[in-house]
Design the sequence.
């Protein structure tokens, strides 16, 4: 018996707790450092809207994602500004794990699939196999490369920047690694890893 699926996209404001727990769900994750870096340059390079006040201050004060990340936790004035901006610019303050707060545990309500941006092709192909449909049938909703690309950094993140981001996004790193374990187990159980 072929199960029928209907894919319902949701906005970034939707949390798992808002979904009917009787339906299958899937989502994508991205490593926190790449997500941060991508958000910085996406915001800086976008031209579809005016900057918020916080974004104006951000790009007037920090020349790169690395510059912002290195300033985090510094006792300097620049460090205080970095802290404030990381809390007021939505793309930095909205964490991946926050979309799953106050939700049932994945053991009770497991995701249908987790698509990791760093393994987009493998996970997308797993998704289409699990739906038992051809990749061609989903070509109209396949993630756009421009929106989900692993960015080419403008400035390589330094060890200090990576350490600060690891500290800042500690819960997201735990969540990301947990999601990777789930998806790797899915692939292993299917015999594709």
Sequence:
């Amino acid at each position: 018996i072929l199960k029928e699926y209907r894919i319902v996209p949701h906005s970034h404001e939707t949390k798992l707790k808002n979904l009917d727990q009787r339906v299958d769900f899937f989502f994508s994750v991205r490593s926190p450092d790449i997500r941060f870096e991508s958000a910085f340059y996406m915001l800086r390079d976008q031209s579809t809207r005016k900057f918020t006040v916080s974004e104006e201050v951000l790009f007037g004060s920090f020349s790169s994602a690395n510059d912002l990340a290195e300033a985090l936790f510094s006792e300097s004035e620049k460090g205080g500004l970095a802290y404030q901006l990381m809390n007021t610019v939505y793309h930095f303050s909205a964490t991946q794990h926050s979309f799953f707060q106050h939700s049932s545990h994945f053991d009770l309500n497991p995701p249908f699939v987790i698509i990791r941006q760093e393994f987009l092709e493998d996970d997308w192909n797993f998704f289409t196999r699990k739906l038992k449909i051809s990749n061609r049938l989903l070509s109209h909703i396949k993630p756009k490369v421009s929106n989900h690309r692993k960015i080419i950094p403008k400035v390589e993140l330094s060890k200090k920047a990576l350490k600060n981001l690891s500290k800042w996004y500690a819960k997201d790193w735990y969540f990301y690694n947990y999601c990777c374990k789930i998806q790797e187990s899915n692939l292993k159980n299917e015999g594709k890893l």
